[in-house]
Each structure stands twice: as structure tokens, then as C-alpha cells.
Amino acid sequence: MLVTILATIAGCNLNQGTGEQMVNLEKVTDDPEEHLANLNKAISRNKQDGSLYKRRAKIFLKKGELDKALADIDEAIKLNKADMANLFLKAQVLRAKGDIARALPLALKAERNSFQSVALYVLLSDLYLQLKQPGNAAIYTKKALALAPKNEFALYYNGRVAEVTGDTAKAAANYKLAIKEAPEFAEARRELTGTLISQRKYEEARQQLDKALKLVPKDGLLWHYRGELYESVQKADSAIWSYNKAITFADSLQQTHYQVGQLLFARNDYTGAISHLEKAGKQYGNNIKYIATLASAYERTGENIKALEQYQRLLEVQPGYTAANYSIARLKAKLMRPVSTYVAEPVSADTLE
């Protein structure tokens, strides 16, 4: 979805500085492939026109062909170094590739050279959010809204900044304004859903979720939110089903693996719980409940060495945790003696509730 946002905001440029106005490709032709073919022909006839490479780079960005987009915008920059719109577009492409470190200085250079654009300010806000610098991000959402108070992307990122800083009321208000301007803005509906869930406004969240899923039925995070809504009404079966659906679309959602792992553990499906919890370690590795649940699941499945490692980890995160000390002593004794039929009761994650 990021590529879609970046490609879309590329067309809402309000450049008031130097350089060529950016082309809105949607107005050139309804068929991007036809436009691409025309640009290919034009470039073959005139390889010194930087604006042609820039326009083709925008098409490649929209198509998600980022390496081709980067090659074209580099050529455009080589042919016209004074056009700050080229730097802005390259920053967009690099952001789409996940290269924040290279994207940010290019975007800032474009701004320093009097390139004023809602899209540029939105991009800068996004980049600073990725760098976990909400204060700087807020500066640029403010600039974007000063240029275009009703721009849906500026409102959306203003909501993102508010949410990161803990102002969920302001976040929800901005998401709603963005949706008012662009009812099919799926990302805004998705973020609004998550914010409403955090506020425990479950019915309103459900309404937004249903609308968002009609727009993007294969969005993993939306299915995660569906699982959270089912959990809020204690429908564990439906929650697990929704979480598994989320994982089919986005296996990297660590919060989903964590949630479904906890539900499976509660059902005594320790093997299933382990399979999900192990995938949530990057995000939850310092979470007490996560470590205790994983340790207990390992012990209940006979993986005592792994269980011992997790209990020791538990002590590192929370020194003096008595239950973990008992479990470590018990496991060390168990590992040192001959195998027997004795089964000890491991520490339960329930003690953390």
C-alpha cells in the first residue's frame, strides 16, 4: 500500500518553487501501459530530455517496479540537476524501497531549495515517523496542512503523528477528516479501526473495519483487528480464525503471532503456541508475559533446555522473579538426574495476570 500512497501523492504537487511542474499521469491517459509505450518511443528519439525519464519513473513507481523507477530518476537528475522535483521523486522511490537513510537527505535538500509541496511535506512526515521522530514529523504535517487544509494525506499523517504521541482522540479526528475527503482511503480506515479499538469503541471500530475490508480484503492488519474485536467479546474460536487469516496475508505481523500464541496456550495447545510465539520474539522479546508463556510451553512439551533458557531470560528482564527462580532450579535438577516419570508443574503465564 505504501507504493500506492507514494505514487498517488506524487500527483498532488503544489510546487511553488523552481523546476518543472510534476506531471499528473492520470490526466495524460487512462492507460498507463499506453503512456509507458509512448514514453519509451519518446525517449528513444530524445535521450537528453530529463522530463521524459522523470515521467517514466513515476509510472514505474506506481507499478511498483522500483529498480526501474530509480534508474530513470537517476538519469533525470543527471540531465537536470536543478530540478528539485527530481530529488523529491527519487526520495519517494527510495522510501518505497525502504531506504530511509538515503531518502531523507534528498527530501530535505529539495525543501531547502524552495520546493514547496504537500506531497514533499507528507513524505518528510512519513520518513521522520519511520525514524521514530514524531516531533519532526509534526513540523511537516503542519506545513502540509498549511498548504492544503483538506488534503487527505496530510490529515492522515497528522493522525499518525498524534497516535504515536498518545493523543488517540486527535488521531481519530484526523483519520475521520481524511476519510471524509477520500472515502476509499483504506489506510485511513485501517488506522482509525486500530485507534477505536484502543479506545474500546468496539462497535464503531467494527463499522470502520467492515468498510475497510471491502476496499482491501487481503490486508493482514485488518484481519488482525477482526481478531481483536472477536477477543473483546470472548469469541476465541473466531479470534483464532481471524488471526490465522491475518497471517496468511502478512506472516510478519508479530502482534498477530503473539495473540494467537497466547490463545492456543490457554487451550493447552502448547506446540501450536510455540510455533507462533517463536515468530513474535523480535517485538515481544522483553515482554514478561511473552517470555513466561514461551518458557512454560517449552517445558510442557519436554523442551527443557529451551525452557531453561527462557526462564533465565525472564530473570534478566525482571530480576527477583521468584517463580522463575523456582523453575530454573527445578529444570536444572531435572536435567542433571536420570530420566524418570516425575512431572513437575511449570510456572504458568497465568500468574502474570
Automatic annotation (TrEMBL):
<dbReference type="InterPro" id="IPR019734">
    <property type="entry name" value="TPR_rpt"/>
</dbReference>
<dbReference type="Pfam" id="PF14559">
    <property type="entry name" value="TPR_19"/>
</dbReference>
<feature type="repeat" description="TPR">
    <location>
        <begin position="288"/>
        <end position="321"/>
    </location>
</feature>
<dbReference type="Pfam" id="PF13181">
    <property type="entry name" value="TPR_8"/>
</dbReference>
<feature type="repeat" description="TPR">
    <location>
        <begin position="50"/>
        <end position="83"/>
    </location>
</feature>
<dbReference type="Pfam" id="PF13432">
    <property type="entry name" value="TPR_16"/>
</dbReference>
<feature type="repeat" description="TPR">
    <location>
        <begin position="186"/>
        <end position="219"/>
    </location>
</feature>
<keyword id="KW-0802">TPR repeat</keyword>
<keyword id="KW-0677">Repeat</keyword>
<protein>
    <submittedName>
        <fullName>Tetratricopeptide repeat protein</fullName>
    </submittedName>
</protein>
<dbReference type="InterPro" id="IPR011990">
    <property type="entry name" value="TPR-like_helical_dom_sf"/>
</dbReference>
<dbReference type="InterPro" id="IPR050498">
    <property type="entry name" value="Ycf3"/>
</dbReference>
